[in-house]
Description:
Layout: H1 14-20, H2 23-26, H3 30-46, H4 52-71, H5 83-95, H6 108-144, E1 149-154, E2 157-163, H7 164-189, E3 191-192, H8 208-214, E4 219-220, H9 224-229, H10 232-258, E5 266-267, H11 286-309, H12 323-347, E6 349-350, H13 352-360, H14 366-375, H15 380-397, H16 406-412, H17 420-423, H18 426-431, H19 441-457
Parallel strand pairs: 3-4
Antiparallel strand pairs: 1-2, 5-6
The structure holds arginine.
The site of arginine has 10 residues, from helix 6.
Amino acid sequence: MKLWGGRFTKETNKLVDDFNASISFDQRFYEQDIKGSIAHVTMLATQGIVSDDEKDMIIAGLEGILADIRSGKLEITNEYEDIHSFVESNLIERIGDAGKKLHTGRSRNDQVALDMRLYIRSEVEETDALLKDLLKVILRIMKENIDTYMPGFTHLQKAQPLTLAHHFGAYFEMFRRDRGRLCDIHERMNYCPLGAGALAGTTYPLNREYTAELLDFKGATNNSMDSVSDRDYVIEYLCALSIIMMHLSRFCEELILWNTNEFHFVEMDDAFSTGSSIMPQKKNPDVAELIRGKTGRVYGDLLALLTTMKGLPLAYNKDMQEDKEAFFDSRDTLIKSLTVFTAMLRTVTFRTEDMERGAAGGFTNATDLADYLVRQGVPFRDAHRVVGELVAHCLSENKAILDLSLPELQAFHPAFQSDVYEAISLKACIERRAIPGAPAPDMVEQSIQEARSRLSKESVH
Length: 461
Ligand code: ARG
């Protein structure tokens, strides 16, 4: 059942029907498509392009279709090319000739651009809400672990001590920036393309601003050609999703590592772990691994759409139909990943004693020892060399710095005094890092306060 049979003398080849159709995936737009049509016909009536009676019949028909699809009474079937044809054909079947006026002053090109925008706009809002839930869990864990010491790493080698709260604070910032990105996208995409027609506007006196207002947009888009050929917002959204997935993936990688026997920093909950069919002892972090793995497919969708768009001349080309499956795939992947990740994180147990033990070993206080010498008036570069020699000595003796006696220390530099032991204790190493953005408990406490108040204020709309 086609909307465009008039100029053709032959039936479309079955292979073409199948290849060309988008209804198997764009049926997910039915709510948006019908909402958009109701706004369009409301505007057509206020402009005197259709009568009020016709408008009322069309709206009643569309609302009936919507209710029937929702209740399952009306099934969306593959005999139609796309969701737009499905709704319009059903409308005409239900209300007769008035239904044939719905598409006045409109093309599927501006219609699909509208549906996609409406869909993505609400997805941006949903993604933002899920991120907010995750941020709340992260904040809770931070609050509980301001004094949980752990080693910080660079090159995956022990570097300097910090706290679990501080480590999680880094993820807090990442996901907070993700929300900022969604906010920017929302702001930029929130304009209505209806009225752009196929590419060159229309000859009817449409009130584009009114349609935009009915659909809660900030206004109408500017250029009709751009309106039908712009998919920047889909790409921006896929890009934002890719970055969110990247953040989740890094977080997952750390949890996987921390969950190993070797690290032993966390224990994943049984409800979020899986077993092995052969090795009875196994408890695997499959959820975290899958999220890490699925990140690749979201990147793939982004790259696919960028590539699809790169050679397209203005204005609409059918290539652009390819945006939908990439978008839906990424959207579904993200929603599932984010939801299960937040649920999993809520249940993770932190082995704080092992973390603290880890923080103490591996010369994580070496920088602080150099800083001690600096406070005694030794230039930093000299202090660095002295401590390097001291570490080499400890390694050959299999000792920690704190195991050395004062005379032993003084053999490396006379500036060492008895207060050195306190100065490089784990507690001092962390508490002395007391500048904004650093792990000292007071600083982290402050950033938690600030984060909490920002969290309640910020959202995409
Ligand atoms: N299914 C099409 C798409 O997703 C709808 C627009 C069709 N327009 C056209 N001129 N064939 O892009």
